[in-house]
Amino acid sequence: MFLVVAGIGINADAGIDRTLGAVLGLDTGETVKLPVPGQGGGQEGAVPLWQSWKPPAGMPAAGEQGTHDIPNSHSGFIARPAGIYLPPAARTAKPPILPLVIMLMGQPGDPTPQFIGGVLDTYAAANQGLAPIVVVADQIGPDQNDTLCVDSKKYGKVESYIMKDVVGFARDNLGVLQDPKSWTIAGYSNGGQCAISLGAKYPDVFGNILDISGEEFPGAEDSSGNLAQVFNGDQAAYDAQKPINIMAGKHFRDTTAIFTVGALDAIYVPAAQTVSAAAQAAGMATTYYEVPNAGHLGAALTGGLEKGFEILYPRLDLSR
User: Fold this and answer.
1) What Å distances lie between residue 130 and 48, 120, 165, 315, CA to CA?
2) What are the domain boundaries of the chain?
3) pLDDT tens digits for 91-136?
4) Beta carbons of 158 and 148 less than 8 angstroms apart
5) CATH node for 64-315
6) Could you give the 3-state DSSP secondary structure of residue 259?
7) Are 188 and 235 in contact (CB under 8 A)?
8) Quick check: 5 pLDDT over 90?
């Protein structure tokens, strides 16, 4: 246990990088061969996938993790290769069309699929190999800046990168369902704030939001610096990017939002409570969950993913 814990890259704010993968012998660096949708089920409007899908003989026992370059033709934002997770069902000769998760990790940190992939492998093992396809996008870039997940002169067009380049890549290249109910924007810490902000801005794309230990608003750890450097002192422009203001006055008719946080995380518990309450007031089907005995690091991330997919699996038609 000491070897594993000592091998994790830890940052007081973001929490985790993928050094644990090297300790455990997990290689997430190889380029993944993207699935070609077959006739395995999952068409929109059909019976639930958990009911129609029959796993073939020889289906892999676990999912595949790796990377893939995502062209930045719309945004020009320089990002590292995205992490990719393909569940066992996606690795068959005739894979079903599956739900999608776009995941955003913390800052600093890596766009590694190992944490979400590990959790989804467990769920897939209990559900006929079914799990969402995951793209872990890089919203902070190789310099690992807190870009606030917005388009700015200082850091580039990050929101455009996610919403045009990453979303477009997923629609065109992955065997995923296209309806918002089947799409989840998820994130941890810095990425958690990005998830609720983007989910609230684009409910026509994302029907589900999973915010794990997220900040209350973009750049909350240095709001005065970000006000000056990113928004040129324009307080109204900054306030407009805060999730509680994005949601104010709106009614979300079919958005599921899950907020998790470590029960011992003194900084992020109030943030999660505030944003969760705003989401509920805006009509989102909201769950707030504190991970027992967890702070802001690995247990909070893993526990948040586990709780999130416990709620999302039936919503995504991956289980009863």
Assistant:
1) 12, 9, 26, 13
2) 64-315
3) 999 999 999 999 999 999 999 999 999 999 999 999 999 999 999 9
4) yes
5) 3.40.50.1820
6) strand
7) no
8) no
Pinpoint the alpha helices (H) of 108-209.
114-125, 158-160, 167-173, 190-201
Where is 262: in which H helix or E strand? strand 256-262
H-run or E-run covering 21? helix 19-23
Two tokens, residue 261: 């946080």
- What DSSP designation does 222 have? G
Angle made by CA atoms 53, 58, 59, in degrees to the nearest 5: 45
- From 89, 108, 97, select the one nearest 16 (Cα to Cα): 108
Q: Do residues 242 and 288 lie in contact, with contact meaning Cβ atoms separated by under 8 Å?
A: no
pTM above 0.70, yes or no: yes
According to the 3-state scheme, what is the secondary structure of 47-107? Answer: CCHHHHCCCCCCCCCCCEEEEECCCCCCCCCCCCCEEEEECHHHHCCCCCCECEEEEECCC
The dihedral over CA atoms of 272, 267, 114, 316, expressed in degrees to the nearest 10, equals: -10
> 214-224 pLDDT, tens per residue?
999 999 999 99
Amino acid in position 210: L
Residues recorded for the chain: 320
